């Protein structure tokens, strides 16, 4: 696959779902990919990327930003409280807001630095103990709490359990977003972004289908 192929498939999925062309943002997930592969995608003009770890992102993105200008960086991995400030300085969007303490920390730092990234609340739709995210039943209250802190929550994000049909999880998240008046829906990865677009995704997070398999060491 290439970036162009993925964009073509996204455009087709938008049309098939009766969605406006360009209504889905492609986040290229560049975690643990070699710099050359990331640069190749930057050279094609793509500017939206997702990273899992603050420290890894700090190592590569300031340099790319100097060379390629304005970037649209999304944190899509768990955020430890002690990395919050660094994350808020680097990322334009944090997709993994998942607990009250983190919400309060972000609100306090936003006051200090005078800006706040866009935020997605991560929901643990599969109720998996090992996975981050607020429980489905706690989502409405948590979104309300974030709003009472004046946090710019723009949507919901989930990572469905592996090896299950993701569609019911996508629909559940879409329902939760709608009833909370949230437009953003970050769902869909390499294996299921078309199904996610059919379910209303506004952001898809695609890694290996663009960059190739992740090399882990
Ligand atoms: C790694 C990752 C992705 C991308 O996964 P692919 O299957 O490589 O597309 C998407 N979302 C999150 C949260 C991830 O950690």
TrEMBL record:
Name under which the protein is recorded: Pyridoxal phosphate homeostasis protein
Keywords: Pyridoxal phosphate
Domain Alanine racemase N-terminal as annotated: residue spans: 8-214
Cofactor: pyridoxal 5'-phosphate
N6-(pyridoxal phosphate)lysine: residues bearing it: 31
Species annotation: Palleronia salina
Cited function: Pyridoxal 5'-phosphate (PLP)-binding protein, which is involved in PLP homeostasis.
GO MF entries: pyridoxal phosphate binding
Keyword Transmembrane: no
Family: Belongs to the pyridoxal phosphate-binding protein YggS/PROSC family.
């Amino acid at each position: 696959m290439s970036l162009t192929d993925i964009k073509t498939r996204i455009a087709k999925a938008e049309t098939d779902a009766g969605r406006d062309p360009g209504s889905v943002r492609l986040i290229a997930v560049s975690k643990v990919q070699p710099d050359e592969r990331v640069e190749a995608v930057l050279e094609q003009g793509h500017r939206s990327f997702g990273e899992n770890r603050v420290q890894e992102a700090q190592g590569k993105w300031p340099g790319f930003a100097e060379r390629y200008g304005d970037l649209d960086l999304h944190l899509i991995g768990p955020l430890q409280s002690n990395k919050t400030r660094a994350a808020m300085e680097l990322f334009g969007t944090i997709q993994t807001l998942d607990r009250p303490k983190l919400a309060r920390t972000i609100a306090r730092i936003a006051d200090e630095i005078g800006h706040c990234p866009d935020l997605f609340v991560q929901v643990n739709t599969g109720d998996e103990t090992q996975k981050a995210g607020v429980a489905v039943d706690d989502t409405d209250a948590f979104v309300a709490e974030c709003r009472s802190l004046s946090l710019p929550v723009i949507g919901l994000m989930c990572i469905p359990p592996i090896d299950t049909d993701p569609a019911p999880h996508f629909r559940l998240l879409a329902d939760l977003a709608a009833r909370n008046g949230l437009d953003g829906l970050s769902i869909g990865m390499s294996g299921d972004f078309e199904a996610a677009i059919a379910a209303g995704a506004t952001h898809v997070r695609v890694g290996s289908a663009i960059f190739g398999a992740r090399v882990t060491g």
